[in-house]
Amino acid sequence: MFRLLTIEFYKLKHNTASKVLSIIYFTLLTSIALIAAIKFDLGPIKFHLAEMGIFNFPYIWHFNTYVAAILKFFLLLVIVSMMANEYSFKTLKQNLIDGLSKKEFILSKFYAVIAFALISTIFVFVVSLILGLSYSDYNELSIITSGLEYLLAFFIKLVGFFSFGLFLGILVKRSAFAVGAMLVWLIGENMLKGYLYWQFKGTEQTGDKVDSIMQFLPLEAMSNLIKEPFSNLNAVRSAANTMGETFTKSYAVEFSNIAIVAVWTFIFIYLSYALLKKRDL
Q1: pTM
Q2: What is the residue extent of each domain of the chain?
Q3: pLDDT tens across 213-230, in order?
């Protein structure tokens, strides 16, 4: 494992584009802290985002992992360009000539995917912990450690997403086309979702029926791992309660969603290996 990871990081070390994209990604993750600086003071109107409770434990785990997951496209570019470069610079063929099997080659890429996801998760954990300890109204250990399942969901989401990108990178061999294919798939899932809403229009529990089908699609399953956190903010809930509105939405990380994404991850890696094994290099 470490030998294969060493090979991958050696390649990344000598790839300027990948290094730049990785630096941009982790810089943007750090910039989550800048949200605390958003403050407006216009006479009687005072608005300080940090004081609204977005950095309170345990809510911060939910909020920060959701925001950080939006930035995953930067690392997706690293993953697909990493695969595209194997074909462009013929390093894939050279690795196989030097004795690396196709199985080991795919495993080296998958280990790199896991490493990126793990580093990102640790990074978000550290940033969130610092922000929480600085701004949270609740600093009891039991409260700080509750909600950590969002970090697990974040890790699983990144592994699944990058595995999808890896498969597309092997399939089309060009980074731009791989990203384009990902966007086409995303549009396709949204079109299907719209069609299902139209198909079930006028029936009882339309949304539940649509969700029961869409949850098995890869990008939708990844999206379901960490649901939007904004309506879960105490300030939003309090405002809704004063207007007589109540929220019944579940924000929990569900095992079924983790299982679906894990299955898709296995499928993407297996298909990557099967495609590489079949393809004449």
Answers
A1: 0.90
A2: 2-278
A3: 999 999 999 999 999 988
